[in-house]
Every structure is written in C-alpha cells, then in structure tokens.
C-alpha cells in the first residue's frame, strides 16, 4: 500500500495527465503481483524483501523527491513493457512460461531499484557508492564471477549473497577494488547521472518500440543513450521525451491494458510521433541521421578512449545486424526467438565457454533469469552494481556508464548468485546463447535476443501454439529490455497482452509484426550495450558483423562460428562469443523463418535440441580455451573456471530443468487465471514438445518435475492463491542425496523425501567426509523437505542443530543465524534438543555481535534457572561479564576453556578484545610490559597446541604476538637480556586497528566465496 | 440480566445519540470524551451496553437520528464495541473500536480547531488498553497476540494527524506517550526513535508548551531509553526533569522514575540517602549503595544476584554491574588510606599481593593476573591515577588525587 501511495504521488507530481495515472495503476498491479508471488511460492524471504523496498520507497518520498520520482517512472515503464511482452508471449503459446519469468524479473527489478536508495541514509549516496565501485572492476568483476562459478557449491555462495542485501553489490566491487570503495566521492554527481539514466531509459523505451516498425527509430534510440552520457542537457531532453512517452502511453498503454486490439493500432501511431519528438532534442546534439556516423563522433568527443572504442564497435555491428534484421522483421523473422531458445542452447554453450570470464558472467545472468528464484536476489544486486561501474571510470559519462554498468552488474550478480545457476546456464546453454547476443547490442534487435533467451527457454516449449508473429513480437519486446528488471517488467506486460489477446480471440489474427512494442526502460539496455562494448576491442566487433551476415542466411553455420571463436585470441574470443551469440540468434531466426508453419517449428526444435545434445562433447575443448584465456587475463580465474567446468554439469542439468518447469507452471497458472481452457492446452502441448526434445539432456527427475508441474497447472490454480496448508505434501522420493534448489512453486511429492529418508540423509551428512559446502547444500535440502512437509519434531531440531554447528565450525554466520532463529522457534514449541547449548550460542551471539543492550537483557532475563546452571550457559554468561567489564584475562581464559562451539563464536570477538586489551595495557603499564606476558594473557597460540612441545609453543605464541602487535602499531623494544618489551607509553599513541585484509564491503568476509572455499576443509 | 423494557432501551440509546450530537455541535471535548471512554465503566455507558445487547436494531435508530446519522461510521462500530466489551469479547471489541476510532480520526481531521483533543486522547488511551486486554485474551486462547501492535500503528496514524503545524500539535505528545507505552511493552523500543525525532527536531513547537503530564511521561520514557543505551548523562537529565516536574503526590510515578534515576546517579558517582530508598520502597538498591560505600565487592555481587530477575526485567542490571569498577576503586582507596596511616612515604605504592589478599577476605578468589588486569582497567578508565609496574607488580598511585571522584561524570569507556 505504501508503495502505491508513493507512486501515485510522485506520478502526479510529474505529470498529472490521465495517462500517467493509468501507468501508475499498471505499476501497482505488477507490484502487487510480484509481492504476492514470492511470498506465496518461495517463502517469507521474498515477502520481507518487498517490505524493505516499500520502506525504502517511503523514505525516499519523504527525503528525496527526485530519486523517488525517477524510480517510480522507471517502474512504470517497465511494468508496461511487461504487459506487452507477456501478452505477445502468451500468444505464441509460450505464454505461461514467459509470464512467469517476467514476473520474476520484474519483481527482482523492483526491489533492486528501490534498495539502492535505501542503502545510504540519504539513500542516494549509498547507491552511488556502489555505482562507482563497479566501474573500476568491470573487467575484474567478470573474473570474480567466473571464480564464483568455479566454486564447487555455487548454491551456497549465492545464498549467502542473497542473505545480505547490500552486501553483494558492494561486495564484489570491494573485493576486487578495495580502493574504489572508499573513493566514491561524487555522490551528487553520480546521483544526477543516475537520474539521467533513468530518463534515458524512458527515451530508449520509446525508441525501441519504433525499432521494429521503422529502422531509423532504433538508431535514434541508440543515439539518445549516447547523448545522455555526454551531457547534462540530456536530462532535460529526456524529460521531454518522457513527456512524449507519456502522451504516447496515454493512447497506447491505456488501451493496451484493457484491449489489445485497440492498443496495437494506437500504439503504432503514437509511438512514431513520440519517437520523433524524443529524437529531435537528441538530434540537436548529434544531428546525424545515420547510425554509424553519429556514433563515432560521439564516442570520440565525449567519452574516454576505452569507452569510445568499445561503443563504436558495438554499435556498428549492431547497426549492421539491425539492417539485416529489418528485412527479417518485416518478413516475419520474429518467430525465431522462441524457436531459437531450444536450438540455441547447445550451440551457444560452446561459444560461451570459449569466451572470457566476462561472457561467463553474462551467461550467469541469463541463467539467473530463467530460474525464477534466483532472479529476485540477483536483480536487486544488479541494479546498484551496474550503476557503480559507470560512475567511476568517467564522471562525464555517468549516464552511459551507469547503463553499461547495469549490464555488467547483471552478469555479476548472476555470478554471485547460486553457482548452480551458472552451471546450469552453461550446461543448458540456452540461456547463455541467448544472453550473449544481448550483450552486443542491447538497443538493437539483438538485445531482444538477450532478453529472449530467458523467454526462449520458456517459449521453446510452446512454439507450436502461438503464432510466429506473436513470438517475434515477444522477442522484440524482450530484446528491447536490457535489464533483468526490464525483462521482468516486459514479461509482465507481455503476459497481460497475450492473455488479453487470447481472451479476445485476436491472438492469431492480430498483426503482431506491426504491433508496437511497449516502451521499455531503455537506459538499462543502453548501458548493457556499453558495457559489453567496453571490454571488447574494435577488431572483435569487426569480426562480429561479418559473421552475422553469414549467419543470417545460413542457419547451420553456428557450430563453425563457435569453433572459430575458440581459435581466436583472448580478446577476440570474448567478443567473438558475443558475436556468436548474436549470430546464433540470427541463425535460429532464419531457421524459424523458413519453417514458419507451427508444425514445422516444432520438428525443428527437436532437431536443434539433438544437435545441441551432441555438442556438449565439444565443450571441453572450448572450455580449455577459455581457461587459457582466463589465465592470461587473470590467473585466479582459471582455477575457478576449472572447478566450474567440473561442477557445471552436475548442477546445470537439474537446475535448468527445475527452472523451466517452475516457470512454466507459473505461467500456466497465470494464463489459466485469465483463460482456463486455452492456456492449459497450450501449456500441455508445450510440455510434450519440450519433453521429447529435452529427453536426452535432462534427468529423469527433471522430467518428472515438469510433468508434475503440468499436472498442477491443470488444476488452474494461480500461484498467488496457493494455500500452503493444502499443499503440505507427503514426500515419496527415496533418494538420500538431494541438492538444494530453492522452490519457486508448489513442491512436488516425488522430489520430496519422507521423514525416514530424511533421517538417513541426515546421518549421511553427519558421516560424510565431504566439505562444508556439500554438507550445507544437503542440509538445506533436508530443511526444505522438512518445511514442505511441515515436519516439526526432534528430527527437525536435529537437522537445524547439525547445520548450525557445522556453520559455526566454518564460520558461516548467515547460515548459522538462520538455523539459530529457527531453533529458537522450535525450542519455544517445546521440542527437545540441545536447548542449553544453543541458548549459550545465542547469548554469545548477542553479546559479541549485536551489542544491543536491550536484547542482551531480554535474552538474559529469559534464561531459566535450570539454564543458568548449564555449563555452556554459565560459560556464556561469564564471557558476557568479561566482555562488559573489559576483563581480557578472564576472556581469554574462558576462550581456552570454552565448551561446545562457544570458541567459534568467541573467535569472532578475539581481535576486538585483543585490541582493547592492548590499548588498555599501553595506557596503564609503565614503562614497559614484556611481550611474553602479553602473549600469555591474550591467549596467543596457546589454543593451538603444536606438536613440538611446550617451548616451541611458547615461542610460537610469542612470535605471533609480536607480529600481531606490530601489525597494530605497537612499539616494541628489546631489552638487554633479549626479551622483547612493549613500550607502553609510545604504544599508547601509536596503536591502531589495521584494516582487516579480508574485509569486504558488506562486512561479512564469509560471503566472499573464494575466501570461504579456501578456508573450508575439503 | 435484568429485564429492560423496550422503551427504556430506546431512551438510553437516543440519550446517548443526543449526547454525542450535542457534544459535537457545542464542541465540548470533555463530554465527548466521556461518551467514548469505554473502560471507564461509567454507569451510563454500562446501561447503554446492556440496552444495546437487548435491542438489536440500534443502527436504525442511528440512521433515523438526523443529528447523528453523519456520525454513523463512528457510532455503529462503537456500539458494537461496547456490546462486545460488555460481553467480554475483547478481541471483537477491539476490532470494532479500532474501526470506530478510524472514523473518528477521519472526522477529527476535518475539525479545524483542536476542541476534540480530549476525546482523541481518550480514544488513544482506550485503544491501547483495549488492545492489551484483547492480547491477553488472544494469548490465553493460544493465538498470537498482535492487537497491541495494531494499536501501535493506529496511534502512529493519529500521531501523524496531530504532529503537523497548528493547534492540534499540543496533543501530539500524549499520543507519543501512549506509543511509548506500547513500544516498551512490545519490546520494540527502536520504533520510538522516529517519534522522538519528530518531537525533538520540530522547531515550530516548543517542547515546554506541551502539557506537563505529557512532558513528564515523555521524559521518563526517553530517559529509560538512554539507560538502555548507557548514555548516563542524558538519562540523568531526562529522568531528573521528569522527577522535578512530576506531581509530588503521585508517589508511584516518582518511584518509577527513581527506579531508573538511582542506578543512573550511582553510575555517575552520586549516592542516594537511605531514607529516600525507604520512602519510595526501593530497598533493592540499598545493598548496592552500601557496597559502593564500603568497597565491598562481595556485597555488590550478592545484591545483584539477589535481585537479578528484577534488575534484568527493568533493564538496569548491566548498569548496576558496571558499578563494580567503582567498588574496586573504593577498595583500593581504603587500602591506600590504611597504608598511609602506617607509612605515609610508601602509601602510593599498592602491592598487587595486598590487593589480592584484600579480595580474598571478601571471598573473591582471583589470581594475580586477573587482579592485575582489573588494575589496568581501573587506570585505563581513569578511576585510579597512576600506573602499573609489571616487573614489581605494584600499582603506583599518583601523589595528587589518586582516586578521582566521578562527580556526575560517567566512567570513561
């Protein structure tokens, strides 16, 4: 409710026109949907997210009028797009799937946009910080992401990232470029640029729509984005454009929501004028009508060298492509995207692998999109990240950079997100392939491709049902989306459109080819383009256009291109990958065109899939190539990539499958809501085709899931309406081992393990010799199964306890906190367990980490007399006393005698305690105090008994203590007898707390995947 | 239930309706407040409730009354609330009352002057009390008590209506205090911050212009918040303000204030007279004070242990625990004085062994390292002036003012 209110207000302030009001309404609906969605399907977390965003929004309204304003607009446009896109998709029979994805993405986008604001106290500053950081690391980031993928247990890492909202965005940047973090100085400027970007987005959206209908319009869109980057003037221009946009929207959008037919005609008419209007302001700065010329001048003049080259090349290729596309579009090429998805997967995988880490990131992004679940988190992160990157490199370029950054961020985020997803992406290759094209030219048709991959995956299933033209239309719409958020919004809109169309019966009769697209948030798209362009060098771009031309006409050459890519240099390889993607897109399109008839498309699909299946064998080679490239670029990346490769196969298949079914399900649900009979049939058809095609690739379980989901879909229940009580399932799965996959829909009994099996699974985990990441993954899946079946008994407690202990041992605090809070509830219900042990942990946690006096008091007051007699609790209470009084001697004595895992929690406070102790000592002792005494009192090394004997131990502790003291700026002097003394007086003024080496922006080093992995005993 | 004739029922209801309409038309906040005061158990309201329970069609009467029909949104749910309250259905009563209150606030918004503040305050109070009762009912039936939370958010809305510029602002502090009561009860004191900010940062309204009782309540709660934050100087200011402005006849209120003010004053080095503790029945602090005077660590620990639950609940436990350092200081001072009597020239050197021995007498079993640590902390916190010589294990005291008094300053952290 708050959100809505805020939106309304802001909108009103902007333009009191009725169109806006309508827009607002659309937004509201979407928001509402999104919020319902996650909460109902996944768990409480999504819901909480929404709340946060709402809160942020609210504050924004109060504090900063401008930011909110922009934000709101942004949301509006995105939502609209969704409606259109979704509608189109629906027509194409992929409706259900697409819709689902869209919803997700939109959801994700929304939080992300809001969140950034909420970060700083002012909201904006925080946002910008993240902004700036990213730019620096644009290159390195990909590597980081790559590494993440490499990590064996990606789900874990992703999970953690998601856990700390702010963290992820800042985290990556800090990780790679610590300096950047602090340097983010230009808050105001950055914020400004941000605004501009949003505006651009609006403009862009206008243009994108025209793109399909008229080629020139597209180019203008591209121009607009460039302009924004260069000057502050853009802002105003954009503003005007927005106005235009709104005018257009009034006619087009309002009808669109309610009547598809009307909207189509009106949209077309309106959009063209709107484009021209928007164009004119922009054209003043960049007068050239033709694309290529205008781009070049801009790049040279306005932006830094690095950016310019990239931009120019990227644009050119895109232009060429677009030129090629024009014909296509007119001819009905649009169908290609849907069909592409299936064929694309196999082919694309190889190219992606060959590409540098950067590409991988992109892939990851794509992967994230398909999986509805992951998206939410990633998207949120993405938005901030993307913004950061642009800002740092070139202040003037802010707008463009921001946009570019966004693209990068997306991949990054994806990488941060569950590793499993990334892997899946690679394996499935569908996502990757699709995503790559998007990189190259966001604004152009290619961008559609990017977006499409997600949709494509979904849509692949449903090719036969919907008219090609609709598919094309959807693809177009998606292509115009540069962000996940945009996509989501786009998808939502499309959904609506399609559903309406189906309801009207105009689905197949409509002229989808001529149907105008909904205006998107173009800024993001532009940004993505820029990002992609930045890393790439000119030669690469050149390569891409030529290939594209080939690909257009020749459907099969994809494989060749992939091979070529592999052979290419590192740089070329990176770009080549993109190019390939684009080529691939084209190729599939051509194929689609040829097989315009629905039946044909289906058959083709299966063929394509087969091809893809055969290709996986080739992958290894390509991967190696990638590794080499990575090695050249970044030494670290290579090792990760290796891991990735091994693991990818593992996760990818399962995840990819899961994603698609889930998405389908959601889509189905929604479609059913609107039109029960039609939607269901279409979905079913979809599934069948998909199953046949995918049979080779996917596991048995996945197919089972799909089927089950289709079943549920048949029920026609909307996900929002899911009643968890009714969905409490009784598991039938007998497999002991099961990977954790976050549910996005109702659980399938055949994949849920009953209690007996879970018991065995717990035993298996407890006795497993594998590393923590494996165990964590397994335990999470056990927890999930328990939750789904509503099992709350001693087994539940045992599982949570086991997980909490494991998490403590390796210092995985986020996971530990989850378990601890669950345990609190479980114990409160009177379920037996190691209550005391965890009461002690809880106390220690409050004492040492939250430093909240009230909380401490209340948790102390809650202790029963019996609890106070417990050894662990007593220990915890003693630690509390030692900490509050600053009694370091007592603290380190307790540290050595800690029962259970109390030590692990105390570990986290040791550094602080030592520092306090030494500053106290240096203030109180005169003239000196022997370091040996300090070492003894502050518990140096004595906790880790060495094998050599007591003497060695002491000296070890002494050495460590000396090191520590030096690191903290203490003054040490050696006495005549050789004993090292702490010069108290000198030290008292020179002590300082060194920046922790493993510090990360979000404050939790555990979220650093690589660091985490190295620390985990495998 | 005694039989009530239909005519009587009609009479009671119309009487109420007329009273309501008259109060509004004559802008009589006091009598309007009385009509809304559910929990006052006034005979007229009780009889009305009985009448309502007999007569089911009160809504028709309300609609027929031309004066009251415009307030139907307020009165209809109010009657329902009254009925349920009378029957003991507190949750239902709360729901109806909240509905009625919402309508009232809506109406209140439209009244330009602040004449109905008194009535609004009654509503703010009633909704809190009713929510507490409803929560008790919910808890006893095993459901999650959440009405008080709902009342909190309703009052937040009321606060929003009052907190703006204008004559109504004077009533904002009362609602703030009701909010404080809710938040403290719910343990969500962090929610107080936004309200406090809007009260304290507003330049348009001087704090002193608020009614005195509200100021005292406000200062009491904000002072308690400062105690939680261990911000003793600020806590002292606020609680002292509350104490000096408090009605001297309200001993219970004074006691509540003192319950927090005494620990705060103790940690600032200011000890209360024992007669004060006796007068206000705060004897749980007497041993603490005694321990501070004597430097008797054992006594302090015993006192803390004895009243642990109480102190933990009121939230002063950690504050009192911190007095330990002052007790150590006192102990050292005693040793110093004794040494001075024996040998003034060596009095400023306190041997660690002696201190350990003194603690042993107090049955505090601490070894050298631990006591040494405490000595360094004492020096570090400036409770003892001097330094510690590690080699000779001696606390060397400054010759000038070796044990500085706190004199109203908190122990440096």
TrEMBL record, chain A:
<feature type="compositionally biased region" description="Low complexity">
    <location>
        <begin position="299"/>
        <end position="318"/>
    </location>
</feature>
<dbReference type="InterPro" id="IPR000717">
    <property type="entry name" value="PCI_dom"/>
</dbReference>
<dbReference type="InterPro" id="IPR045107">
    <property type="entry name" value="SAC3/GANP/THP3"/>
</dbReference>
<dbReference type="GO" id="GO:0005634">
    <property type="term" value="C:nucleus"/>
</dbReference>
<dbReference type="InterPro" id="IPR005062">
    <property type="entry name" value="SAC3/GANP/THP3_conserved"/>
</dbReference>
<dbReference type="Pfam" id="PF03399">
    <property type="entry name" value="SAC3_GANP"/>
</dbReference>
<protein>
    <recommendedName>
        <fullName>PCI domain-containing protein</fullName>
    </recommendedName>
</protein>
<feature type="region of interest" description="Disordered">
    <location>
        <begin position="531"/>
        <end position="560"/>
    </location>
</feature>
<feature type="domain" description="PCI">
    <location>
        <begin position="812"/>
        <end position="998"/>
    </location>
</feature>
<feature type="region of interest" description="Disordered">
    <location>
        <begin position="281"/>
        <end position="318"/>
    </location>
</feature>
<feature type="compositionally biased region" description="Polar residues">
    <location>
        <begin position="281"/>
        <end position="293"/>
    </location>
</feature>
UniProtKB/TrEMBL annotation, chain B:
<dbReference type="GO" id="GO:0003690">
    <property type="term" value="F:double-stranded DNA binding"/>
</dbReference>
<dbReference type="InterPro" id="IPR045114">
    <property type="entry name" value="Csn12-like"/>
</dbReference>
<dbReference type="InterPro" id="IPR000717">
    <property type="entry name" value="PCI_dom"/>
</dbReference>
<dbReference type="GO" id="GO:0006368">
    <property type="term" value="P:transcription elongation by RNA polymerase II"/>
</dbReference>
<dbReference type="InterPro" id="IPR036388">
    <property type="entry name" value="WH-like_DNA-bd_sf"/>
</dbReference>
<dbReference type="GO" id="GO:0003723">
    <property type="term" value="F:RNA binding"/>
</dbReference>
<protein>
    <recommendedName>
        <fullName>PCI domain-containing protein</fullName>
    </recommendedName>
</protein>
<dbReference type="Pfam" id="PF01399">
    <property type="entry name" value="PCI"/>
</dbReference>
<dbReference type="GO" id="GO:0000973">
    <property type="term" value="P:post-transcriptional tethering of RNA polymerase II gene DNA at nuclear periphery"/>
</dbReference>
<dbReference type="GO" id="GO:0016973">
    <property type="term" value="P:poly(A)+ mRNA export from nucleus"/>
</dbReference>
<feature type="domain" description="PCI">
    <location>
        <begin position="216"/>
        <end position="402"/>
    </location>
</feature>
<dbReference type="GO" id="GO:0070390">
    <property type="term" value="C:transcription export complex 2"/>
</dbReference>
């Amino acid at each position: 409710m708050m959100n809505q209110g805020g939106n309304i207000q802001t909108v009103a302030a902007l333009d009191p026109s009725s169109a806006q009001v309508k827009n607002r309404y659309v937004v509201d609906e979407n928001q509402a949907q999104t919020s319902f969605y996650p909460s109902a399907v996944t768990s409480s977390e999504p819901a909480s997210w929404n709340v946060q965003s709402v809160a942020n929004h609210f504050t924004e309204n109060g504090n900063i009028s401008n930011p909110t304003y922009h934000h709101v607009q942004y949301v509006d446009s995105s939502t609209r797009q969704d409606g259109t896109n979704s509608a189109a998709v629906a027509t194409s029979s992929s409706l259900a799937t697409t819709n689902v994805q869209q919803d997700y993405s939109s959801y994700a986008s929304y939080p992300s946009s809001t969140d950034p604001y909420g970060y700083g106290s002012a909201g904006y500053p925080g946002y910008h910080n993240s902004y700036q950081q990213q730019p620096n690391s644009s290159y390195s980031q990909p590597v980081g992401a790559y590494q993440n993928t490499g990590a064996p247990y990606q789900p874990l890492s992703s999970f953690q990232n998601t856990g700390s909202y702010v963290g992820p965005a800042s985290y990556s940047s800090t990780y790679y470029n610590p300096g950047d973090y602090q340097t983010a100085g230009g808050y105001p400027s950055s914020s400004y640029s941000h605004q501009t970007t949003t505006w651009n987005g609006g403009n862009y959206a206008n243009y994108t729509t025209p793109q399909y209908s008229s080629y020139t319009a597209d180019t203008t869109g591209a121009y607009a984005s460039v302009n924004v980057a260069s000057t502050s003037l853009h802002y105003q221009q954009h503003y005007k454009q927005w106005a235009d946009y709104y005018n257009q929207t009034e006619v087009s959008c309002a009808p669109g929501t309610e009547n598809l037919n009307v909207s189509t005609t009106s949209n077309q008419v309106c959009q063209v004028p709107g484009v021209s209007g928007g164009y004119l302001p922009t054209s003043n700065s960049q007068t050239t009508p033709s694309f290529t010329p205008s781009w070049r001048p801009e790049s040279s003049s306005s932006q830094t060298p690095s950016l310019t080259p990239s931009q120019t090349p990227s644009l050119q290729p895109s232009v060429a492509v677009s030129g090629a596309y024009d014909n296509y579009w007119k001819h009905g090429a649009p169908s290609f995207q849907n069909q592409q998805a299936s064929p694309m997967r196999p082919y694309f995988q190889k190219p992606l692998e060959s590409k540098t880490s950067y590409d991988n990131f992109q892939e990851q992004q794509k992967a994230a999109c398909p999986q509805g679940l992951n998206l939410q988190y990633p998207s949120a992160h993405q938005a901030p990240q993307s913004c950061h990157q642009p800002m740092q490199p070139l202040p003037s370029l802010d707008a463009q950079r921001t946009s570019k950054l966004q693209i990068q961020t997306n991949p990054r985020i994806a990488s941060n997100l569950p590793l499993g997803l990334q892997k899946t992406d690679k394996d499935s290759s569908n996502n990757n392939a699709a995503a790559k094209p998007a990189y190259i030219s966001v604004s152009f048709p290619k961008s559609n491709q990017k977006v499409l991959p997600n949709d494509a995956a979904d849509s692949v299933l449903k090719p036969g049902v919907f008219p090609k033209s609709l598919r094309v239309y959807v693809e177009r719409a998606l292509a115009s989306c540069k962000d996940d958020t945009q996509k989501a919004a786009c998808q939502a809109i499309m959904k609506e459109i399609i559903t309406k169309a189906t309801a009207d019966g105009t689905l197949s009769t409509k002229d989808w080819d001529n149907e105008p697209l909904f205006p998107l948030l173009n800024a993001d798209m532009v940004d993505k383009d820029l990002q992609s362009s930045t890393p790439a060098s000119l030669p690469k771009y050149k390569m891409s256009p030529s290939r594209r031309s080939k690909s257009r006409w020749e459907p099969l050459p994809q494989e060749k291109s992939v091979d070529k890519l592999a052979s290419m240099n590192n740089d070329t390889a990176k770009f080549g990958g993109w190019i390939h993607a684009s080529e691939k897109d084209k190729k599939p399109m051509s194929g689609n065109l040829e097989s315009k008839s629905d039946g044909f498309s289906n058959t083709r699909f299966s063929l394509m899939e087969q091809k893809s299946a055969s290709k996986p064998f080739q992958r290894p080679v390509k991967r190696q190539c990638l590794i080499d490239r990575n090695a050249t670029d970044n030494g670290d990346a290579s090792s990760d990539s290796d891991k990735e490769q091994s693991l990818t196969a593992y996760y990818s298949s399962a995840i990819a499958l899961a994603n698609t079914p889930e998405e389908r399900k959601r889509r189905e649900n929604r479609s059913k809501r609107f039109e029960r009979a039609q939607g269901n049939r279409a979905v079913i058809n979809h599934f069948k085709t998909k199953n046949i095609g995918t049979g080779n690739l996917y596991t048995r379980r996945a197919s089972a899931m799909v089927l089950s989901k289709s079943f549920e879909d048949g029920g026609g229940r909307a996900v929002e309406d899911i009643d968890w009580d009714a969905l409490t399932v009784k598991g039938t799965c007998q497999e002991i081992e099961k990977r954790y996959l976050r549910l996005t829909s109702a659980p399938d009994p055949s994949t849920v393990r009953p209690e007996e099996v879970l018991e065995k699974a717990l035993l298996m985990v407890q006795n497993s010799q594998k590393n923590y990441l494996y165990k964590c993954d397994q335990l999470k899946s056990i927890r999930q199964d328990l939750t789904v079946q509503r099992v709350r008994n001693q087994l539940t407690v045992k599982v949570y306890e086991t997980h909490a202990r494991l998490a403590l041992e390796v210092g995985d605090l986020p996971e530990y906190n989850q378990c601890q809070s669950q345990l609190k509830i479980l114990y409160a219900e009177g379920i037996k367990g190691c209550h005391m042990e965890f009461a002690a942990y809880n106390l220690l946690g409050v004492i040492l980490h939250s430093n909240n006096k009230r909380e401490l008091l209340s948790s102390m007051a809650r202790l029963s007399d019996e609890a106070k007699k417990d050894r662990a609790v007593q220990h915890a209470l003693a630690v509390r006393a030692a900490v509050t009084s600053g009694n370091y001697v007592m603290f380190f004595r307790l540290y050595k005698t800690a029962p259970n895992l109390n030590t692990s929690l105390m570990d986290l406070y040791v550094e602080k305690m030592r520092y306090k102790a030494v500053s106290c000592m240096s203030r109180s002792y005169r003239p000196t105090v022997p370091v040996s005494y300090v070492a003894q009192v502050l518990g140096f090394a004595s906790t880790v008994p060495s094998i050599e004997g007591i003497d060695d131990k002491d000296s070890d502790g002494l050495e460590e203590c000396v090191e520590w003291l030096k690191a903290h700026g203490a003054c040490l002097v050696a006495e005549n007898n050789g004993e090292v003394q702490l010069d108290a007086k000198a030290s008292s003024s020179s002590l300082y707390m060194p920046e922790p080496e493993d510090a990360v922006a979000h404050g939790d080093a555990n979220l650093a995947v690589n660091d985490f992995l190295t620390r985990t005993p495998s | 239930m005694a039989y009530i004739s239909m005519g009587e029922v009609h009479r009671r209801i119309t009487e109420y309706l007329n009273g309501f309409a008259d109060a509004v038309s004559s802008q009589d906040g006091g009598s309007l407040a009385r009509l809304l005061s559910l929990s006052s158990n006034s005979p007229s309201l009780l009889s009305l409730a009985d009448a309502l329970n007999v007569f089911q069609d009160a809504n028709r009467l309300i609609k027929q009354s031309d004066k009251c029909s415009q307030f139907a949104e307020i009165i209809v749910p109010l009657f329902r609330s009254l009925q349920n309250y009378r029957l003991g259905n507190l949750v239902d009563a709360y729901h109806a009352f909240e509905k009625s209150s919402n309508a009232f606030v809506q109406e209140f918004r439209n009244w330009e002057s602040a004449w109905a503040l008194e009535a609004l305050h009654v509503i703010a109070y009633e909704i809190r009390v009713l929510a507490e009762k409803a929560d008790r009912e919910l808890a006893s039936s095993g459901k999650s008590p959440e009405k008080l939370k709902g009342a909190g958010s309703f009052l937040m809305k009321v606060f929003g209506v009052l907190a703006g510029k204008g004559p109504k602002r004077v009533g904002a502090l009362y609602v703030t205090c009701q909010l404080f009561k809710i938040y403290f009860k719910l343990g969500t004191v962090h929610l107080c911050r936004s309200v406090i900010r809007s009260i304290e940062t507003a330049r348009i309204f001087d704090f002193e212009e608020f009614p005195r009782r509200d100021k005292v309540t406000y200062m009491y709660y904000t002072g308690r918040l400062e105690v939680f934050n261990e911000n003793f100087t600020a806590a002292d200011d606020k609680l002292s303000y509350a104490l000096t402005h408090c009605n001297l006849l309200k001993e219970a209120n004074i006691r509540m204030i003192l319950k927090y003010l005494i620990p705060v004053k103790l940690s600032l080095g200011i000890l209360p007279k024992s007669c004060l503790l006796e007068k206000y029945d705060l004897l749980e602090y007497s041993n603490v004070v005694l321990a501070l005077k004597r430097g008797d660590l054992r006594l302090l620990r015993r006192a803390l242990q004895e009243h642990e639950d109480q102190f933990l609940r009121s939230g002063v436990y950690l504050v009192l625990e911190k007095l330990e350092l002052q007790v150590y200081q006192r102990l050292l001072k005693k040793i110093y004085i004794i040494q001075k009597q024996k040998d003034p020239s060596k009095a400023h050197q306190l041997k660690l062994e002696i201190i350990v021995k003194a603690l042993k007498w107090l049955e505090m079993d601490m070894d050298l390292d631990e006591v040494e640590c405490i000595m360094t902390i004492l020096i570090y916190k400036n409770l003892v002036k001097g330094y510690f010589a590690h080699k000779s294990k001696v606390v060397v005291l400054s010759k000038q003012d070796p044990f500085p008094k706190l004199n109203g300053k908190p122990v440096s952290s």
